[in-house]
Amino acid sequence: MTVKIHTGKPLINTGRMGEPNTQPDRKENKVAGETTPAVDKVKISSFAREAARLDRSEPANDAARAEKVARLKQQVADGSYDPDPEKVAKSLLKYIFEDR
Asked: What's the whole-number average pLDDT of the chain?
């Protein structure tokens, strides 16, 4: 999972070493032509929202999921795992293009 944080601040320190930045970040308010404090923004991807939703969901199917994972691990280990290539491709394409 990738988390992108953009604060609008420069990536390098433009002040002198050891001197704190005492002035708040400002940006121009294009409507009124005045300067206002900068506002941080957060954009959460649909993947992150889904992951958070799943994390909050009830663990009702944990036993069934654990059994399925154990069965798949065994199939991979003994070489009998044979996934459907069409289902894999569809799932990958859905994942790749979901946030666009």
From this structure: 76
Say which residue the tokens 């992108």 belong to.
4
Domain assignment present for 76: yes
pLDDT digits (tens, 9 = 90+) for 34-71: 666 667 888 888 888 888 887 776 666 778 888 999 99
Tokens of 65: 């999921």
**4 domain-assigned:** no
One DSSP character per residue, 18-82 reads: T----SPPEEEETTTTEEEE--------HHHHHHHHHHHS-GGGHHHHHHHHHHHHHHHHHT---
In this structure, how many other beta carbons lie within 10 angstroms of the beta carbon of residue 47? 13
> Has residue 31 been placed in a domain?
no
| Domain coverage including residue 63 | 49-99
Residues whose CB falls within 8 Å of the CB of residue 82, separated by 6 or more in sequence, listed in order = none
